[in-house]
Amino acid sequence: MTVEKPVLHYLVRHGESQSEREDPAKPLSDHGREEIMRVARYAASIGVEVAEIRHSDRLRARQTAEILAEYLLPQLGLREVEGLSPGADPERVHAELDAAEEPLMLVGHLPHLGRLVSALVLGNSGTEIIRPETGTMICLAKTERGFRLLWVLTPDLVQA
């Protein structure tokens, strides 16, 4: 009997951004850049590997993905995709993760990420089981029976 190794996927909420008043494009703040660098460094140190990092069209998500890519070196690089915006339907991304045979990292926003985790783990996007803070990385395993939440890494758990 062979046991298939589950495919791991990672969901990341963008780092803290500047306020809309400071900059309407809402780029990452200095603090946001630092929290993503800490999470990315730690993820690389524990062997997180991803084939591709996908992000929403928002500047703060792209900047977060770029920092993560510096440390995780995804062989397929970065790609902006639809379906990761704050109000997007989680079912679209659910189908993409279901079909993926290589580990992916998705960088997005609330409330979408919270609803996506619930859709993957519970089969119900209406009940949020987690509401990730900025800079949080969530690891999910895709198994024969569906998705399992393996771990959650928040920037405050990682030393500077």
TrEMBL record:
A Pfam family reported for this protein in Swiss-Prot or TrEMBL: His_Phos_1
GO terms for cellular component: cytoplasm
Organism for this UniProt entry: Methylomirabilis oxygeniifera
SUPFAM superfamilies, sorted: Phosphoglycerate mutase-like
Single GO molecular function: protein histidine phosphatase activity
InterPro entries attached to this UniProt entry: His_Pase_superF_clade-1, His_PPase_superfam, SixA
Gene3D superfamilies: Phosphoglycerate mutase-like
Endpoints of the signal sequence: none
Name of the protein: Phosphohistidine phosphatase SixA
